[in-house]
Design goal:
about 0% strand; about 80% helix; mainly alpha; globular; about 375 residues; two-stranded antiparallel ribbon
Length: about 375
């Protein structure tokens, strides 16, 4: 009797914080290890000369490798890996976007000038607006897919798509479709832009210096790696200007995300405002702000002070590339080809129209603003 009483009344000791920590680690470790393995393979492949020459980034390779595994051998190990893969796709992504600010300085904006900033802003705004309008009205796509394609085309490719995903709370297949369009048309740009420059140089249709070409390429081509490849195909000067133009465009990612989050919060159809949830902080009047976008700006501002040694900055950028590649790998692992097939040709057609706008409309914007403010 006393024994039974003792068993009923003895308090249950809660697990220690250390024990809970080890349990969480054990839960996340398989998925994180898998994402890290895929990311390491992608980074290794990205250092191959042919891959670098064609502007194929480690992030692109990571999502492709992840998709290959996700649609072949991943299913049996998915139950053990789901928690870690989800952690990489969400939390590591946000950390990666924050640290992406170390690639930028506010001095880049000053070096590029008012005309350059105006060109980047107009290209970004017009391309995203076209994607939203044409995607929904002309192609009948859902708003999320249209916005993701617009973000990737107008700002900085796959990184912009991944950064916009938490604000829109998009599905994995929507993100993958948007990233795929960036890969297709960004790769095409690597070859088409230099070919058009040399053709124009031979026929002298438009007065275009290597520096002006660099500004044009940097303000209109999707990925940073693609911009570098297209710039180097013309000259070192073109590549240098192209990278600055592209970095200023990347800097606009943070205000873009904040503005998009404010719009979605104010136009939500009841219930929880769109864009709320993990990765956001609540602002004034119920408007939600993506905290990782603010972190991105803060890191870029700190980097502008030049307090960190170059070796430290380079090491952190390498680390950032690794965790962004892990996020991409995790996205690929959770994306099913059948979902992309169901999306059909409409996203590709939208991306093609946006590419035509970037190519032609972007040239017009560069020429008009360059002459007006230059």
């Amino acid at each position: 009797m006393s024994s039974a009483f003792s068993e009923q009344t003895l308090p249950v000791r809660p697990a220690s914080a250390t024990a809970r920590g080890w349990q969480q680690l054990a839960r996340y470790l398989p998925g994180l290890a898998l994402a890290a393995l895929v990311a390491a393979a992608a980074i290794g492949l990205s250092h191959i000369g042919w891959v670098q020459a064609h502007g194929i980034s480690a992030l692109t390779l990571a999502i492709v490798l992840g998709m290959i595994l996700g649609n072949t051998i991943y299913a049996p190990i998915a139950p053990a890996s789901t928690a870690g893969v989800g952690f990489a796709k969400q939390r590591l992504l946000r950390l990666g976007i924050i640290l992406y600010g170390l690639r930028l300085t506010f001095q880049d904006i000053g070096q590029f000038g008012i005309a350059g900033v105006a060109i980047d802003a107009l290209v970004l705004g017009s391309t995203f607006a076209l994607s939203w309008f044409l995607g929904v009205r002309l192609f009948g796509l859902d708003r999320g897919t249209a916005m993701l394609i617009g973000a990737g085309s107008s700002i900085c490719g796959a990184a912009a798509v991944m950064a916009t995903e938490p604000v829109l709370r998009s599905r994995a297949e929507q993100v993958t479709v948007a990233v795929s369009t960036v890969v297709v048309f960004g790769t095409l740009a690597i070859f088409l832009y230099p070919a058009l420059y040399h053709w124009n140089e031979a026929h002298q249709l438009i007065a275009l210096s290597p520096g002006q070409y660099g500004a044009y390429a940097g303000s209109t081509i999707h990925e940073v790696a693609q911009v570098v490849a297209a710039g180097r195909a013309v000259s070192d000067q073109a590549a240098d200007v192209a990278v600055i133009a592209k970095m200023v465009r990347v800097m606009m990612l943070a205000p873009f995300l904040v503005a998009l989050s404010i719009y979605l919060a104010r136009n939500a159809d009841g219930g929880q405002p769109a864009g709320t949830g993990k990765g956001h902080s609540r602002g004034i009047g119920g408007v939600t702000i993506p905290w990782f976008a603010l972190g991105f700006v803060a890191v870029a501002g700190f980097n502008s002070l030049g307090l960190l040694p170059k070796a430290v900055v380079a090491a952190v950028i390498d680390f950032d590339t690794a965790i962004l590649a892990m996020a991409m790998a995790a996205l690929g692992l959770t994306t099913h080809i059948s979902a992309i097939r169901r999306a059909g040709l409409k996203p590709l057609a939208l991306a093609a129209l946006l590419f035509a706008w970037l190519l032609l409309g972007g040239a017009g914007i560069n020429l008009a603003i360059g002459r007006w403010l230059g």
